[in-house]
């Protein structure tokens, strides 16, 4: 229940939130709840295992937790990468249309704005719709 309460509290975070009130507090509540859950779930998973097999059961539990964590992290990273790339493709052209020449220059210097193969004298052309990746059909070998 504490883990769920911590996650629910995190959903209340907005632009004007403070670190202590909207990040630190919920994460402390969440971590306390997860700590209690992991201990109780481990005890429950290993409670009826015969003594000679406790090592194998503990190893299986640990391996399952590691694989679950790895899969969860890889799925989250993939989703974040896709979402951020798609959002950048929509927002960067709008920013460049409204930006002053100084802002464009600064963005070009710090935001890796040039297209592959472009020179320093090329105009900014970040992620124009025509530069989106397209899958090309494979050529027969």
Topology, element by element:
Layout: H1 2-10, H2 19-46, H3 54-98, H4 101-110
Helix pairs in contact: 1-2
The number of distinct helices, counting runs of at least 4 residues, comes to: 4
Which shape, going by the Cα principal axes?
Answer: elongated
Report the helical percentage: 55-70%
Oligomer, anyone?
Answer: single chain
Order of helices and strands: HHHH
The value of Rg in angstroms is 25 Å
Low-confidence stretches are 124-137
Distance between the termini: 58 Å
Number of strands: 0
How would a crystallographer describe the biggest sheet?
none
Q: Give the integer mean of the pLDDT values.
A: 81
Strand content of the residues, in percent? under 5%
Would you tell me the structural class of the helices and strands?
mainly alpha
What does this structure look like?
The protein has 141 residues and is an all-alpha fold. Among the domains are: 1-46; 61-112. The protein is 65% helix and 0% strand. The protein is built from four helices and no strands. It has helices at residues 2-10, 19-46, 54-98, 101-110. The radius of gyration is 25 Å and the shape is elongated. The N and C termini lie far apart (58 Å). The relative contact order is 0.06. Residues 124-137 have low confidence and may be disordered. Residues 120-129 have a biased composition (Low complexity). Residues 99-141 are annotated as: Disordered. It is a multi-pass membrane protein.
């Amino acid at each position: 229940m504490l883990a769920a309460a911590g996650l629910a509290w995190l959903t209340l975070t907005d632009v004007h939130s403070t670190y202590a009130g909207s990040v630190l507090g919920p994460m402390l509540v969440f971590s306390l709840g997860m700590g209690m859950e992991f201990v109780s779930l481990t005890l429950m998973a290993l409670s009826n295992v015969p003594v000679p097999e406790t090592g194998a059961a503990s190893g299986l539990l640990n391996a399952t937790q590691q694989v679950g964590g790895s899969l969860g992290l890889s799925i989250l990273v993939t989703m974040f990468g896709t979402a951020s790339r798609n959002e950048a493709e929509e927002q960067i052209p709008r920013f460049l249309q409204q930006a002053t020449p100084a802002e464009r220059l600064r963005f070009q210097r710090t935001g890796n704005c040039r297209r592959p193969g472009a020179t320093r004298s090329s105009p900014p052309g970040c992620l124009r719709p025509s530069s989106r990746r397209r899958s090309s059909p494979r050529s027969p070998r």
